[in-house]
From TrEMBL:
Belongs to the PPC synthetase family. This is Membrane traffic protein. It comes from the Eukaryota. The keyword S-adenosyl-L-methionine does not apply. Pathway: Cofactor biosynthesis; coenzyme A biosynthesis; CoA from (R)-pantothenate: step 2/5. One of its GO terms (molecular function) is phosphopantothenate--cysteine ligase activity. Residues 181-299 form the DNA/pantothenate metabolism flavoprotein C-terminal domain. The keyword Cytoplasm does not apply. Keywords: Coenzyme A biosynthesis. SUPFAM superfamilies: CoaB-like.
């Protein structure tokens, strides 16, 4: 399964295929709440434009989508992504003054939590008696830092977190998000780092109950998830600055595929990365050429997302300046 139906394997998708996908998808359980949260969050950014400048808003997608095999899902196909790229990038965008809509896979890495142990998180805490919980001294600084920054971003209205699990949820929430950000024009950005399923079982052909093993080997036929990037650029987010990601394990085809995605889907940038070196370096592919971005090895804890977001923010500024209002 390739990570991104939002990217590369070039095929035209008709609007009717896309409509059919959304019509047959199980409706979001909390659609009304998500819409309201988006409306409030985006509305708040437009109001809070200090110094006359509109706030920039970026939607960061993060983590992999699942493809359920049963409607009452016991088994599913997953897409690789720890969510580290999305979580770290969110922190750098916030630092750069952006408001961030963090569209993330449940259970994957979260902003501000990289220095906390995830296995088990309870190692951070002590419980001297049943009424008191204390943070282990060795984690105190990290916990205070994480909780403080997270709380400040949420209560300050600069971070909105929306979780997804399945491909159905992801695409529906992304569409809602794009539509809600439309009026932000060129101040809106999409940073599509999520690893999105290319193949799926259409809901109406999916068995309701757990697949039984007694009938022997399982034959699965997966339909192709409609390629949505064209319609995303044309209809959902026509004025936003759009960045997609391309992951490959074969470096020989990586740049060619990133370049193809850039041109075919009219992206402003495609960030190309190879699985084993993705934390060390990425290549930014744009219409005017490509640029390697590496993490700063001389800096303790240096992450490739830091210089990456720096380049992106500066390109976004140029885009805003040169866009017609
Ligand atoms: O989530 P992570 O930090 O483990 O990995 C990030 C990534 C490789 C999923 C991301 O950089 C990426 O390339 N996402 C898109 C994958 C694709 O559509 O090809």
């Amino acid at each position: 399964m390739d990570a991104s139906n939002f990217s590369d394997d070039i095929q035209e998708t008709s609007n009717s295929e896309i409509e059919a996908f959304f019509c047959s998808a199980p409706p979001l359980k909390d659609a009304a709440e998500i819409k309201m949260k988006l409306k409030d969050f985006v509305g708040r950014q437009s109001l809070h434009s200090e110094s006359g400048k509109a706030t920039r808003v970026v939607c960061v997608t993060s983590g992999g989508t699942t493809v359920p095999l049963e409607q009452r899902c016991v088994r599913y196909i997953d897409n690789f992504s720890s969510g580290h790229r999305g979580a770290a990038s969110t922190e750098y965008f916030l630092k750069a003054g952006y408001a961030v809509i963090f569209l993330y896979r449940r259970g994957t890495c979260q902003p501000f939590c990289s220095s906390l142990p995830d296995d088990p998180l309870l190692n951070c805490f002590d419980c001297p008696d049943m009424r008191n919980v204390q943070v282990q001294p060795s984690y105190a600084e990290d916990v205070v830092n994480a909780v403080g920054r997270h709380q400040a971003a949420i209560t300050g209205g600069t971070l909105l977190k929306l979780p997804f699990t399945t491909i159905f949820e992801y695409l529906q929430i992304l569409k809602e998000t794009a539509v809600s950000m439309k009026d932000l024009g060129s101040n809106a950005m999409f940073y599509l780092a999520a690893a999105v399923s290319d193949f799926y079982v259409p809901w109406e052909t999916m068995t309701e109950h757990k697949i039984q093993s007694r009938s022997g080997p399982l034959d699965l036929r997966l339909a192709q998830v409609p390629k949505m990037l064209s319609v995303f650029r044309k209809d959902w987010a026509p004025r936003a600055f759009c960045i997609s990601f391309k992951l490959e394990t074969d470096t020989r085809i990586l740049l060619e595929k990133a370049d193809m995605a850039l041109r075919r889907y009219n992206m402003h940038m495609v960030v190309a990365n190879e699985l084993s070196t993705r934390k060390e370096e990425v290549v930014i592919v744009t219409a005017s050429g490509s640029k390697i971005v590496r993490r700063d090895m001389t800096k303790a804890g240096g992450e490739v997302e830091e210089p990456l977001i720096e380049v992106i923010v500066s390109e976004h500024s140029i885009y805003i300046e040169t866009s017609t209002p």
